[in-house]
Write a structure and sequence with these properties.
Elements: H1 5-10, E1 18-19, E2 22-23, E3 25-26, H2 37-49, H3 60-79, E4 88-91, H4 94-109, E5 115-119, H5 128-137, E6 140-144, H6 157-160, E7 165-171, H7 183-192, E8 196-200, H8 212-215, E9 219-223, E10 234-238, H9 240-245, E11 256-259, E12 264-266, H10 280-296, H11 298-316, E13 322-325, E14 334-339, H12 344-353, E15 356-357, E16 359-361, H13 366-372, E17 377-381, H14 388-405
Parallel strand pairs: 3-15, 5-6, 5-7, 7-8, 8-9
Antiparallel strand pairs: 1-2, 4-10, 9-10, 11-12, 13-14, 14-17, 16-17
Helix pairs in contact: 2-10, 3-10, 4-5, 11-14
Bound molecules: pyridoxal-5'-phosphate (PLP).
């Protein structure tokens, strides 16, 4: 099936506007994607028609909201092919999902002298929580490096993994380099040594079909706002037998089955990890985003975005002084670059004035910046609503500013 991009764009009215009197070109979907009307309308409908606090079972509105909220858990179970619905935990985003695992897995399984392997190409969200647990527990962080071309050196795992290794934290798709990491292979190596794996899927879920059973991962985390859904909602998939052994991350309502001053009994999964009132409207609207993506077809979207990426890469390479970070064939969604002799901030500021929204700076990935010894970069990232014409305009804008600035 070929995607009708002109029709798809109509679902995203925000794209149809001018900024600084220039047609908006939104190339920052890796930071946050825009939301289709279907998602926005669902959130509004819930607020207007049946908003109530969930799981309290007190009245019609609360019941209806609960049914819709829990239906999204089933949708997500199917979307990533999780074996059990109680393995889907709602959080406020990838960051919270990783912090939850770092804290709770850390409490249950990480001790003095243990080791956690983190890849060099991680977003800060998949580094800092591990440093925090390592600091608290007297454990050590070991780094799985990548080559200059953006390939993760997974053969180094043979040296890094030892009897003290407890967990590997790795991105499915790196937010700067775009590298699609061979997570299945990494997990197989880890499991052969009894090591658990957390895969950060924040940049992967909207670009690739994800099957947590086929991957055999222990934890998989992602955010709704990067996949056409609302912000403030995320997912932690965790293997049931691990989640059951992990203590709660936060205490409060919903995560308990009984409380007294003598003893509190925690609730069953998934509620043990969902303390307090969650982002009810966000979760329900997230269901609409998943439906939207599934109706388009994740594989079709991936194929289209791959063509955009290949086209943009080829065109960018025509610009003198172009340096692209991450040149793997197995790559998705993003192009991070610099142009020799011009500061990344100047480029992104001028692009903005020309109507092109890109991300610039350290991209929440200081270790990647350190690898290339740069203080900043520019990142263009694509989603299903972007077009080849937009890429042409982006390249024309870049060429113009190179002429002006160099
Ligand atoms: N991990 C990766 C790979 C990301 O790209 C991001 C966001 O850019 C995050 C984690 C953090 O996601 P969030 O801010 O939604 O928690």
């Amino acid at each position: 099936m070929t995607l009708d991009i002109a029709r798809i764009r109509k679902d995203f009215p925000i794209l149809d506007q001018k900024v600084y009197n220039k047609p908006l070109i939104y190339f920052d979907s890796a930071a946050s994607s825009q939301k289709p009307m279907q998602v926005l309308k669902k959130e509004e409908q819930l607020h207007l028609e049946y908003y109530g606090n969930i799981h309290r079972g007190a009245h019609f509105l609360a019941d209806k909201a609960t049914i819709e909220y829990e239906a999204v858990r089933d949708q997500l179970k199917a979307f990533i092919n999780a074996p059990n619905r109680e393995e889907i935990i709602f959080t406020k985003g990838t960051t919270e999902s990783i912090n939850l695992v770092a804290f709770s897995f850390g409490e249950a399984f990480i001790g003095e002298g243990d080791e956690i392997i983190v890849s060099e190409m991680e977003h800060h969200a998949n580094i800092v929580p591990w440093q925090m647990v390592a600091g608290r527990k007297g454990a050590k962080i070991r780094v799985l490096p990548f080559e200059d071309n953006g390939r993760l050196m997974i053969e180094k795992l043979d040296e890094l993994i030892n009897p003290k290794t407890k967990l590997i934290a790795v991105a499915h798709v790196a937010n700067t380099l775009g590298t699609i990491n061979p997570v299945k292979q990494i997990i197989a190596k880890a499991h052969a040594a009894g090591v658990k794996v957390l895969v950060d899927g924040a940049q992967a879920v909207k670009h690739l079909p994800v099957d947590v059973q086929d991957m055999d991962t222990d934890f998989y985390v992602f955010s709704a706002h990067k996949m056409y859904g609302p912000n403030g909602v995320g997912v932690l998939y965790g293997r049931k037998e691990l989640l059951e052994q992990m203590p709660p991350y936060q205490g409060g309502g919903e995560m308990i089955s009984e409380v007294s001053f003598e003893k509190t009994i925690y609730n069953d999964l998934p509620y043990k990890f969902e303390a307090g009132t969650p982002h009810i409207t966000g979760v329900v609207a997230f269901g609409e985003a998943i439906k939207y993506l599934e109706n388009l077809g994740v594989a079709e979207v991936a194929e289209y975005e791959h063509k955009l990426l290949a086209y943009a890469t080829k065109k960018l390479m025509e610009i003198p002084g172009m340096i692209i970070y991450g040149t793997q064939d197995e790559k998705s969604g993003v192009i991070t670059f610099n142009i020799e002799g011009i500061h990344s901030f100047d480029i992104s500021t001028m692009l903005d004035k020309m109507g092109v929204a890109v991300r610039s700076g350290r991209l929440c990935a200081d270790t990647v910046m350190q690898h290339y010894n740069v203080t900043g970069t520019i990142r263009a990232s694509f989603a299903v609503y972007n077009t080849f014409e937009e890429i042409d305009q982006f390249i024309a804008a870049l060429k113009k500013l190179v002429m002006m600035l160099s």
